[in-house]
């Protein structure tokens, strides 16, 4: 590997010399060009040493990454860049790897969705921390941690609770979306002694932690069984608003809702009404619709609601898992092998 600077005779870099903050990491021979943000370049810098076909091009700024697009066969990490501009400019682009599990903002770009460009995401690797967060939200409600936190801030020792303190053992969890996140949620629910049922459009193999997996058209039949409903489903046109007034009406009194997927899965107005009426015992929300919520939104003031600012996907472990995925897919792309986490762009997941 060598750093290529201004004056290089490599033809592929001739058009790049004017771009500020751009580095090229190259090896001799025919190349497959993968463009990455500078923040990733150091972590991937050794790969061209092992794959003679691979060249990494990096840029410090999103605009500079877009300027590299005509030279890219693949691109990693579109954080902060204009996806449509990247795809339009990437006339030889064959692969886009994104760092999130959700891809609705990418498949909404027709130039990407309707092209032959392969889109891969970060599904599965975000399962552990999001599942942990889901149960953190649930336990904050079932053990009234929010209230006791308020008491602690005021230096109050009082053993009464504002919400009922309940056990999860023996109760039923409905996991909507049994993918990388939902599977981890199901494992944790089973470990708490819960009976787990799920909804997923795929034919899911028999799962030791899940008693039954239904198709999306069985949602309304399964909802009345649930004591806790977990939304782990990707946002697609079919899943938007799938938890609305009708579904809340079908729930038993005292059900809990935990949403760690996307805010638009839930009809917010119907959610507020179900919480206010007592039909829902509580809601744990890492995502909302709209996002962020306006400061005067009623959900902020409800004692049986806990909201976190879309941080469930953050942890001390996810970065390493994401980097391993990126490295593996770069090597697969450079050697013509099948990529991991390929998204069906028409389905949206």
Describe this structure in words.
The protein is of the alpha/beta class and 349 residues long. Helices cover 31% and strands 17% of the residues. It contains 13 helices and 14 strands. It has a seven-stranded mixed sheet with strand order 1-2-4-3-5-6-7. Helix 7 (127-142) packs across helix 9 (180-191). It is elongated and about 70 Å long. The chain starts with a strand and ends in a 14-residue tail after the last helix.
Write the layout of secondary structure elements.
Layout (H helix, E strand, L loop, with lengths): L1 E3 L17 E5 L5 E6 H7 L2 H4 L3 E6 L2 H7 L5 E3 L6 H7 L5 E3 L6 H4 L2 H4 L4 E3 L6 H16 L2 H9 L18 E5 L3 H12 L3 E5 L12 E3 L4 H4 L5 E4 L13 H6 L4 E5 L8 H10 L2 E6 L19 E3 L10 H18 L14
Parallel strand pairs: 3-4, 3-5, 5-6, 6-7, 8-9, 8-11, 9-10, 11-12, 12-13, 13-14
Antiparallel strand pairs: 1-2, 2-4
Order of helices and strands: EEEHHEHEHEHHEHHEHEEHEHEHEEH
Low-confidence stretches: 1-29
Task: Work out the oligomeric state of the chains in this entry.
Answer: single chain
Largest sheet, if any? 7 strands, mixed
Termini Cα gap: 36 Å
What strand order characterises the main sheet? Answer: 1-2-4-3-5-6-7
Radius of gyration over all CA atoms, rounded: 23 Å
Helix content: 25-40%
Q: Overall pLDDT, averaged?
A: 90
Question: Which shape, going by the Cα principal axes?
Answer: elongated
Give me the count of strands.
Answer: 14
Global structural class: alpha/beta
Report the β-strand fraction as a percent range. Answer: 15-25%
Number of helices: 13
